[in-house]
Every structure is written in C-alpha cells, then in structure tokens.
Design brief:
By secondary structure, the chain is α/β, with parallel strands linked by helices. The chain has helices at about 30-40, 55-70, 90-100, 115-130, 210-230, 250-260, 270-275, 280-290, and strands at about 5-15, 15-20, 45, 75-80, 105-110, 135-145, 160-170, 175-185, 195, 205-210, 240-245, 300-305, 310-319.
C-alpha cells in the first residue's frame, strides 16, 4: 500500500497588536472605505518590536503539535516557508527547532514568498513519501510589517504578520492525505513583485509591486494550476469541498471563484482579518476553518498561492 502524508494537526498564531485601516489615514492619502473596496482588508496584525518570525512560527507549531497529540521529539523534519527570516543565516527553521526542543529533527527554510507554504508542503510531502521522515512540521510564518514601505499606498495596506502550521504524518491511509502538489515559477516576471534589497546589495529593501501585472498573472496562472491539479486526479470543481486560496486580495479570490463557478460559501476567506500574510496565509486560513468547524476530516480541499518570483502552485488534499 502506498504511503500518504496525512494532516493530523493544525495551528496558528497572530500578534496581539491590531492595526485598523483608519490608522493609515495618518500616514498616507487613503480611507477605510478605499482599502476595503480594493482589497477586502479591514485590519491586520503587527508583530511587537521584540517579536521575530521564529517566535510566531514556534507558537503556531506548538498549537499544531498539541492538536495532533504529539510532542516536539516526535518530529523528524521541520520545513519553514518565510520571506522574512530572523537572520540571513542560520535558517529560521533551526531557530524554531531549538525553541521547540525538536532535537531529533532536521530543519530547513523555503523561500517562495506567498507560494511558500505550497512549496514547503511539497518538500515535506516528498520527504515522507520517500521514507526519509515519518513526521513533518510545515510552517508558514512572516513579519511582513518589517519590509513594508509605509509611504507606498500601493503596498503598505496589503500586508500583515502571522503564522500557521500543519503536522504531517506518514500513514498507510488511502482515505486521507496530500494527493498532489504542483509547483511553478517564472523568473522573467521578477519585476511584478519583489523587495528592492538584499544581503548582496547591502540594503534591507522593501516591497515593490505592479498591482495590475500581479492581478493578471494571478488569475491566469493560478487558474491553470487549479485546472492541472483537477485533471491529474480526474476531478471536477464540484468534487472539491473547500477552496483555500492565498489571502492576497479579495478581488483575486473572487475572480478565481467566478472563473471556476465556485460559490463563495465554499471558499475559506479571512483576508479581512489578517490581510496578506504571505507564506502564512494558507495555513492561517486552514486553521480558521478547522477552528470554526467548517473543515472536517475526509473532506477534499484545493489550496493555491502565487508570490514574488513569480512562484505559484496548488495542492490537493484529502483532509
């Protein structure tokens, strides 16, 4: 019997500080109504000065372990998706490993920005299916507020801080597990969404985005990724119980739902509360749906995300 990577735990964490849309009117020429109309965002969480990405990721991981009835010593591999690491090196994953006390695990970071969680899920899934590990923590965690240009109206209202995590276990379970992940990238579209700095440039850098270009590519490329995923499993959109998209912008989410005739009642949306938390957004949405009882074991879901690079991908999971 083939082994499956089964989601047995899910957790999330967001900082306590909430920044409402109205606060941006003190920084830039905007209003609460303008932000809601164009993004669907009403608020976002902002990390405290002494909070780091690893702190957020560790808190989400603890919740995921708890919900699965596991302890840190049970974990064989930790895969962290982040574009806002604590340090240039070592990896944020190793810092989370130390904070958790997961000394039996090996740990690594994945950098695919808003598609990061899908990429990390794919990496962990392959470790489990090839037998290199039996239990994996997959974490998406970000402090996007640290790389925002607070004077750039096109980007500063879009992002927030947070973390989400899932625990995967290698099981002989044909009824549940990750059915497939599909990953894509196109570096020619680098200028659509990037940070204008980095270690080799000796510059911290902040987010720069061509919103129109991102919107066009998001609908086109995510649409294709979803179609390919469904076709690979002889599924139709009607077979999917929940659509769990990257929470970038309500307009992108609604455009994809309309493209596939998915009723919004089958779409997990929390962008209004958390804004775009990059690699954390999909696991945060999963945790939201688990906590409120919508997402149940055995249900079929499809996740998708697109980020700077451009990078994008999809995952089909029997929860």
């Amino acid at each position: 019997m083939a082994y499956q990577s089964v989601v047995t735990g899910c957790g999330s964490y967001v900082p306590s500080k909430i920044m409402m849309n109205a606060e941006f009117s003190e920084l830039i020429d905007t209003t609460d109504e303008w932000i809601i109309d164009r993004t669907g965002i009403k608020q976002r969480h902002i990390a405290a000065p002494d909070q780091f990405t690893s702190d957020l990721g560790c808190a989400a991981a603890i919740e995921a372990l708890k919900s699965a009835g596991k302890v840190a010593s049970d974990v064989d591999v930790i895969v962290v998706a982040t574009t806002t690491p604590d340090n240039i090196f070592p990896s944020t994953a190793t810092k989370i490993q130390a904070k958790l006390g997961a000394h039996n695990a090996f740990a690594l970071d994945i950098q695919a920005v808003c598609a990061g969680f899908i990429y990390a899920l794919a990496v962990a899934d392959n470790f489990l299916k090839t037998g290199q590990a039996k239990t994996a923590l997959v974490i998406g965690c970000e402090t996007m507020s640290r790389i925002i240009d607070w004077q750039d109206r096109a980007t500063c209202v879009l992002f927030g801080d947070g973390a989400g995590a899932v625990l995967l276990e290698r099981q002989e379970n044909p009824e549940r597990g990750i059915l497939s992940t599909r990953l894509y990238s196109d570096g020619r579209l680098y200028d659509a969404l990037y940070a204008d700095g980095g270690a080799s440039q000796s510059k911290h850098g902040t987010i720069r985005m061509n919103g129109r270009e991102v919107m066009k590519n998001a609908v086109e490329k995510l649409g294709s990724a979803i179609e390919n995923a469904l076709e690979a499993h002889n599924l139709t959109i009607e077979d999917i119980d929940w659509f769990v998209p990257h929470q970038a912008n309500i307009r992108i989410i609604k455009a994809l739902a309309e493209k596939f005739n998915i009723p919004l009642e089958k779409v997990i949306i929390n962008v209004e509360k958390y804004a775009n938390t990059s690699a954390a957004s999909i696991p945060l949405a999963l945790a939201t749906a688990v906590t409120d009882g919508r997402l149940k074991p055995g249900q079929l879901i499809i996740c998708e995300g697109i980020g700077g690079g451009l990078t994008w991908g999809s995952a089909v999971i029997r929860w």
